[in-house]
Write a structure and sequence with these properties.
heterotrimer; A alpha+beta (164); B mainly alpha (384); C mainly alpha (215); A: 164 residues; alpha+beta; 2 domains; five-stranded antiparallel β-sheet; four-stranded antiparallel β-sheet; elongated; B: 384 residues; mainly alpha; Alpha-Beta Plaits; 3 domains; two-stranded parallel sheet; two-stranded antiparallel ribbon; 17 helices; globular
Chain lengths: 164, 384, 215
């Protein structure tokens, strides 16, 4: 009798598995995808740059300031703060802005870079440190996640390492 | 040695067609939804792929064999995935190398292999250590959530059968392993089959320590047929050199020499991870000890060394069994059989095989079939 | 001397940094623990040796660095050299450890002794070597503790700060003694050895890459 019940359970499981296969494109796939998306996970800020905290308006464009990103565990990158100049199409051919990153009313860095007409052209940035908390950068491209200038869609992103 | 059973007569055409009918309907359902919006190349590709999958299933029914027909699908998947993927990558950004801009924008396509590496960092810090997006972000794929969703669904249905019915990389080495008539290196130390577990352990620990997908950065051989991080410095060059070397040895050369799926059997950490789900899968392969002689033909035919003397004596495969059906097809005494947990071994093996194949082939049509169609459409679009 | 406030701060910093310490030591600790044989007592002895020499590494670094005024601002080139050398030593130690596990298993896999490495008449438990090397590796929690310990008025104060910090981090290591309950088989030990080789390869490459870039 035990064998019978065991076999019944087995075939029921097999039947349910076939049923699950049929349900996958119509229900299960969407269900699992939404469940994963709702877990409250986020992509490592070393890649994403951290959430935007505030925006500074400028002449025809704006500068978004992101929250400082600190390395996890043994990440070899430094802590950094990301600034976005957008829209890139509205930027002058040479940008040189003094930015108050921490919002204390005092200037922290001067960021200077050329904006080439070709959006695929490589970018280089100079950062003068007016606050010792932020590291100066000279002619930096995109070597590291924590210290770079890149164009992503219609924004130019600059990441400035933070001294800890 | 006792004589093998006489070769079984093929199943009747009528009965084979009847058994194939559900798969034919399923294929029509899977390949026609976007018919109105598809271009000519994609429609032709869908027709060809749907027909291909239906014909293979029909042959599985007619000949009572699984492995040799499944292998055609799997090799096609392994060959056509890179065609579609690389074409899309180059169309989008002009290079197979992933520039840092794409990583920052969260548009790095996510494959299933890093899934086990992301679990511990995500559990501890709610952070996904992968430069992708959780939801679709204008990139090539539907985001990490979509891949996780399909992975979970297919795993629930077939367990480690993912490695035989869904993995879009394994077909390359399965094809390479099929090329030579005989193995030049017939004997392999069975301890090498523990390699995937070692790679999994090492990569999970390094991924947590370095907070990056360590396998993707250092060891994935399939970057040769998909994409890779564009080298920005000497470390990047070394990383790219490693993956080329691993692809050449594990995916090309060693399968040719051994006639085994060496990357899958000795290296792939995702395969080790999927082995865990063989414990939860209702379908499995068993050895009927009352019929087994043992001739160990099953052991020799297994592409991933999932059978050894001890497991055969116990009447079962090892955890690493991919449910490819090679051993079942090779067994001359019908001792290696498909089995549903809880039922008697070898009571109704063909029923177990049918139920498994309906589930597995449905997944294969839905997932792998779509990828094959896209690859085929790419070729047709270039040619027509 | 460290005040009660600094004591609490050191302990709190240690407890908060513990997970990061475990994560950074994990690639060394877990495969080498897995390569040991079954037994709670054996694992407790392993952890004792590992943590004792890790403490020694902490205190040695604290004392030397405080004396040379390098706790806060170890010059970048010196830090890179140290990092590279420690990584090379870790890689070498892991390889040696994996080799010794294989040798000892050939004689008897039921040993109640810790795996030893080193030549000569008095081989050292591998756990001790690995513990010391992880103790002097400059992981971020270690560096953070160094910055705080530099404020101590005396070298004794700095050493005491590190010692208490160490206690805080070590709390997180104690549960790993539970790995002694995992039944070891030849398969488990083989997996551990292979993993050690892979991780050693990473450390060796990492150390070499730094040295090559320096030159």
């Amino acid at each position: 009798m035990l064998k019978n019940w065991s076999a019944k359970f087995g075939y029921t499981g097999a039947g349910l598995t076939v049923f699950a296969a049929i349900l996958t494109p119509f229900l299960l796939y969407g269900l699992f995808t939404n469940a994963f998306a709702s877990l409250g996970l986020h992509v490592d800020e070393m890649y994403s740059g951290g959430p935007k905290e505030r925006t500074i308006p400028a002449a025809g464009y704006s500068i978004d300031i992101h929250r400082q990103v600190s390395p996890h565990m043994l990440q070899r990158e430094k802590a950094f703060v990301q600034l976005d100049w957008r829209p890139a199409t509205a930027l002058p051919s040479h940008v040189s802005d003094v930015v108050d990153i921490d919002g204390d009313g005092k200037p922290d860095v001067r960021v200077s870079f050329d904006v080439p007409k070709d959006p695929k052209a490589p970018l280089r940035v100079d950062v003068d440190s007016l606050n010792p908390r932020y590291q100066a950068m000279h002619n930096v491209g995109k070597q590291k996640f924590s210290e770079l200038i890149v164009r992503v869609d219609d924004a130019i992103l600059v990441r400035i390492p933070v001294t800890q | 040695m006792a004589k093998a059973l006489p070769v079984r007569e093929p199943r009747s055409i009528g009965r084979s067609l009847l058994l194939t009918l559900p798969i034919a309907l399923w294929s029509a359902l899977m390949f026609t939804p976007n018919w109105a919006h598809a271009n000519r190349s994609f429609r032709i590709a869908c027709l060809l792929t749907g027909g291909f999958m239906v014909v293979l299933f029909f042959l599985m029914m007619r000949t009572w064999k699984t492995y040799r027909w499944r292998r055609w699908f799997f090799v096609a998947l392994g060959l056509l995935f890179p065609v579609g993927f690389i074409h899309n990558v180059i169309a989008m950004r002009g290079t197979m190398g992933i520039p840092i801009e794409e990583m920052i924008a969260g548009r790095t396509p996510f494959c299933f292999i890093p899934i086990p590496l992301l679990i511990v960092p995500a559990a501890l810090t709610k952070t996904l250590v992968f430069p992708g997006s959780i939801l679709p972000n204008g990139g090539m794929t539907g985001g990490m959530a979509a891949m996780a969703g399909i992975w979970l669904a297919v795993t629930i249905v077939v367990g480690k059968g993912w490695c035989s019915y869904a993995c879009f990389f394994g077909g390359i080495e399965e094809g390479m392993a099929a090329v030579p008539a005989k193995a030049k290196v017939p004997i392999i130390d069975s301890r090498w089959r523990l390699g995937p577990w070692a790679v999994l352990l090492a990569m999970v620990l390094l991924s947590l320590a370095l907070f990056e997908p360590a396998y993707c950065m250092w060891l994935c051989p399939f970057k040769a047929v998909s994409e890779y991080v564009a080298a920005r410095n000497s470390v990047g060059l070394v990383q790219n050199g490693i993956f080329i070397l691993l692809f050449a040895t594990l995916v090309m050369a060693l399968p040719l020499l051994t006639k085994k799926r060496t990357q899958c059997a000795f290296f792939c950490p995702f395969g080790a991870f999927q082995s865990i789900f063989n414990k939860t899968s209702v379908f499995e392969v068993k050895i009927d000890r009352t019929r087994c002689t043992p001739c160990v033909l099953c052991q020799k035919s297994c592409p991933t060394l999932a059978l050894n003397d001890e497991s055969i004596a116990r009447g079962e495969t090892l955890m690493s069994c991919m449910k490819c059906g090679a051993c079942v097809d090779a067994c001359p005494k019908d001792a290696a059989v498909w089995h549903i947990r809880g039922t008697e071994i070898a009571a109704k093996p063909e029923r177990a095989r049918l139920m498994f194949l309906y589930a597995a082939w449905a997944m294969a049509v839905m997932f792998g079939g779509t990828i094959i169609a896209e690859g085929l459409a790419t070729i047709l679009h270039l040619v027509l | 001397m460290a005040t009660g406030f600094a004591f609490g701060e050191a302990l709190g910093l240690g407890l908060a940094s513990g997970p990061a310490c475990v994560a950074s030591c994990g690639p060394v600790l877990i495969p080498s623990l897995l390569a040991e044989h079954t037994g709670l007592r054996l694992h407790a002895r392993y952890l004792s040796a590992f943590l004792a020499t890790r403490l020694l590494g902490y205190l040695l670094f604290a004392g030397v660095a405080w004396e040379v005024g390098a706790l806060v601002s170890l010059p970048a080139p010196a830090r890179l050299w140290m990092f590279a050398i420690i990584h090379l030593l870790l890689g070498g130690a892991l390889l040696w450890y994996a080799y010794r596990v294989g040798r000892e298993c050939q004689r008897s896999c039921a040993s109640s002794q810790l795996v030893t490495i080193g030549a000569g008449k008095h081989p050292v438990p591998g756990a001790a070597v690995l513990g010391f090397l992880t103790g002097v590796s400059l992981c971020p929690p270690f560096v953070a503790a160094g910055v705080r310990a530099a404020e101590a008025a005396t070298v004794a104060g700095a050493i005491l700060f590190f010692a208490v910090f160490f206690v805080g981090t070590s709390v997180w290591f104690l549960p790993f003694a539970g790995m002694g309950w995992i039944r070891r088989s030849e398969a488990v030990i083989t997996v551990a050895r292979m993993a050690m080789v892979l991780i050693a390869a990473y450390y060796l490459f990492s150390g070499l890459a730094i040295l090559i870039r320096r030159f």
